[in-house]
Amino acid sequence: MVVCVCNAIREGQVREVARGGARSACQAYRALGCQAKCGQCVPFARAIIDSERAAA
Known about the structure:
By secondary structure, the chain is mostly helical. It is 54% helix and 9% strand.
């Protein structure tokens, strides 16, 4: 599933960087070499990161 249309970031990529230590959407985007543009994806990215942290 696409998380961020602006940067073409997929859910699996966000999960991977969350497992790698990203604790916020901003950290995840930086780890992927980009930044949020319109910001509509940030709540979804945050929810994915939170679910990965809870599962760890």
